């Protein structure tokens, strides 16, 4: 596909900060893709561009590299990733161009984006909808209170979006009853003015409710918070069969191994140690310290690198959690990626925030209208 024109744009993300967008013109049609950004970023992640710099790079160096060339997705992504790897462009700029190309290419073929991705990357037909992983309580860097939980995200896994809304309502009422101050966090969840002991006790009240959810989940973001084994085990005493993301430092896999051995029913998830990188996933898989991995296109850099990471995870029998970032946009392509990947879980924040809701709704729409 030959790109006629591509430009950069500046938008506002869910937190009100500037974010990058890319607009592509093909056959007199306009396509737009926007990219969010993470507040909590692993040290191994690629650099990000200031959105104004990203706009200039899209219209300058990127356009000069691709104008007039007949490219497919992999060819474009190879050009983009080379620029990303040598730090000429940031990961947000890179992904914005990769995603908008996928939108235009799928339209040219008369396909939904998820169908295009399945064909482009030789993926098996998706036979299930990923389980929603909704963020309910937010702490650490996602919470602006001085007193706050150390656990970054308290989550529930449910195949029913309405259940996440009901749990959110229940927690709001429980916080009011306990006279605990709260506000909406960066991902639309409840940022509370309380430590983990109180948050865990309130969260545990959900066990007594007849609600349609599969598991509890916790994102410890341990690279930032340096959790102790005692603290993690304290959480597990209340929530044994749960999803545990980044429970310990990515540099200390002894504790990861002990956790996985001691609690075989746990879903032990890597994000910071793997950063959606196929090589890192391949390296960690034989250590037998995880059984699931976070996949964030905003970490991988391009659509092609995202699916490269997904294929390596699948080849190593790891569950896949396709995930958003803490500051998101209205773009819903993440849902198409999750469905095409046959992801086990889809983590897009709290649906009370519109930038999250559009992603969950898109996934529901895909499932209802799939052919």
UniProtKB/TrEMBL annotation:
Where is the Enolase N-terminal domain positioned along the sequence? 3-117
Domain Enolase C-terminal TIM barrel, by residue range, is 126-370
**InterPro entries assigned to the protein according to its UniProt record, in alphabetical order:** Enolase, Enolase-like_C_sf, Enolase-like_N, Enolase_C, Enolase_N
Q: Which Pfam families match?
A: Enolase_C
Q: What GO cellular component is one of the record's annotations?
A: phosphopyruvate hydratase complex
EC numbers: 4.2.1.11
Q: Which GO terms describe its molecular function?
A: magnesium ion binding; phosphopyruvate hydratase activity
- Keywords of the record: Glycolysis, Lyase, Magnesium, Secreted
Task: Quote the pathway field.
Answer: Carbohydrate degradation; glycolysis; pyruvate from D-glyceraldehyde 3-phosphate: step 4/5
Does the keyword Acyltransferase belong to this entry?
Answer: no
Could you state one GO biological process linked to this protein? Answer: glycolytic process
Statement: the UniProt record of this protein carries the keyword Lyase? yes
Family (UniProt): Belongs to the enolase family.
Protein name (record): Enolase
Instruction: Please report the organism this UniProt entry assigns to the protein.
Output: Candidatus Berkelbacteria bacterium Licking1014_7
